[in-house]
Amino acid sequence: MLAIFKKEIHQFFSSITGYVAIILFLLANGLLLFVFPDTSLLDDGYANLDPLFKLAPLIYLLLIPAITMRSFADEFKTGTLELLSTKPLSWWQIVTGKFLAGVLVVFISLIPTIVYYIAIRQLSANPASLDNGGIAGSYIGLLLLGAIFTAIGVWSSSLTSNSVVAFLTAIFTCFIFYYGFDAFSKLPAFTGSADYYLQMAGIQSHYTSISRGVIDSRDIVYFVSVIGLMLYLTRLSLQRRIWD
């Protein structure tokens, strides 16, 4: 697994693509948080990072599929998946290695955003008024969200040898998981009956809950369960392709 992990990290950062992806993520956040008037922290009148944690999921919706779209698609395209299957590695080790490499990239992209926290703290008239617990919870939620999107992206990449198709499939699936279930719960047909369960099936309600600074075990179980499910589906997809 460690060999797969190192290979993925080296492949990601050995080209300009990896650096461009992270730079674009930081640039988009910087423009939205400090330049554009509708979302600027400077015009909010209150020292908080709520806009960052509201906007980051939308940016991750595009960024993470771009990071993961080549995870297995390139292996299929170049024919190296069959070679991997002959190595002394289990399918779980291969899938987990690629997944953890993607999560590390997500974590790396989050580290520079600490600058935003420092900036808000310096600009605040009363730094003690900052909700540090809520900010810490939001970062944990954002990392867990990135992990789920990574698992979905890896699964999408295991379905096809076309990286563009994998990218679009990952975007659509991430969108449904984050926005779709919550939107369906608001339909009149589900109001008062299945709306609560539909919200609980989606990511948004759990992410919002953690972002309040309260780490609920139910939210953690949800994130871990969805990640496990997507990785399991990835393993099944790979085995099916080898058998075919």
Throw out a few tags for this protein.
244 residues; single chain; mainly alpha; 12 helices
Blueprint (SSEs and pairs):
Elements: H1 2-13, H2 16-34, H3 50-68, H4 73-78, H5 80-85, H6 91-110, H7 114-123, H8 132-157, H9 163-185, H10 195-201, H11 203-211, H12 217-243
Task: Provide a brief overview of the structure.
The protein is an all-alpha fold and 244 residues long.
Can you tell me about this structure?
It is a multi-pass membrane protein. With 244 residues, the chain is mostly helical. The protein has one domain (2-243). It contains twelve helices and no strands. It is globular, with a radius of gyration of 19 Å. The protein starts with a helix and ends with a helix. The relative contact order is 0.14.
Assign an overall shape: globular
Content-based structural category: mainly alpha
Radius of gyration, in Å, reads: 19 Å
Count structural domains: 1
Per DSSP E runs of 2 or more residues, the count of β-strands stands at 0
Task: State the distance separating the first and last CA atoms.
Answer: 24 Å
Subcellular location: Cell membrane
Transmembrane segments: 12-35, 55-73, 94-119, 139-157, 164-181, 220-238
GO molecular function, one term: ABC-type transporter activity
Protein name: Gliding motility-associated ABC transporter permease subunit GldF
